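Quick entry between incubations.
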Amino acid sequence: MTIEAQDEQQAATKDRLLAAPISQDAGFLLAKLHAGGSVLNNRALAEFDLKERSYSVLILANSGLEPTQRELADFLSLDPSQIVALVDELEKRKLVSRAPGKQDRRAKTVTATAKGTQLLAQAAVAARRAESEVLAALSDEEAAQLKVLLRKALWG
Amino acid sequence: MTIEAQDEQQAATKDRLLAAPISQDAGFLLAKLHAGGSVLNNRALAEFDLKERSYSVLILANSGLEPTQRELADFLSLDPSQIVALVDELEKRKLVSRAPGKQDRRAKTVTATAKGTQLLAQAAVAARRAESEVLAALSDEEAAQLKVLLRKALWG
DNA sequence: ACGTATAGTTGAAAATGTCAACGATTGATT
DNA sequence: AATCAATCGTTGACATTTTCAACTATACGT
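Done. Structure below.
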């Protein structure tokens, strides 16, 4: 069999299951696109010793919103104990710092350091590249529209 | 503080981080909507002792396409060894059966039994209800458009 | 002041993900 | 025909992630 024919057959068998009704299921589509995107994102961020999770925390820490760990947990849909581990690691690397909450001394706000801001600037470039890879099959308008719909589904 | 004021404040702090630039990140939006959706899906499927994963396998087994385990792994973005575990469990429950591949005796095709088809019919109702909950903020047209875009991103 | 609730932290347990090896089978090459 | 590399399902080991229950310190309503 020629290489070209092999590729064709691979493509055919790869998409064979597309006919199944699960391809109409939003949950499945979400899961699959997210799975593929995670791989690319994490690959892109590995260069900076970041993963999707720590990258997310770093962005929020750098937002000027001074999120508390509880807010991070809620916003990122993670358990508070996972936030502890993420912030621990970023703090050890001097990318973020913890500060006691101003009104609530139980809470700790997480803020990016100058070093964190700097690393984030570089990582964001790589992440944007990864995102455009994930959405490569969409036009710019379609990609924008997809984000609009996702945001609306999440927050109305 | 009144209950109403509490609720308002909760809503306000809940969305406080929306201003962060991560809300523009497709990977994050995908992850978050998927996370929320998984909870609802699994909750809906628990009644039938199914999870998202086993439900997906059951749908594909019931599709008439007679997928092999390798095809299931590729399509569901799972490791082949995870498919083994999923099919083991469904087979134990007599919801699917394994059969040797027709052209390739290494492969095993997975097919739903009558019992599997029957359970799937019920589970699908619950799953559809969960999906419409996840996408409740979207109109029918928007939900359809979202799926179109997700499919296009995945398969062009 | 008291009781209840919440923020962060720790640590353990359960679930999931990743990977390397293996036997059986296939297909290509000689 | 014999061989060799590749693939399928399976197993088991290991790492990572998720989930949960406790605990301390702090906050807040009564």
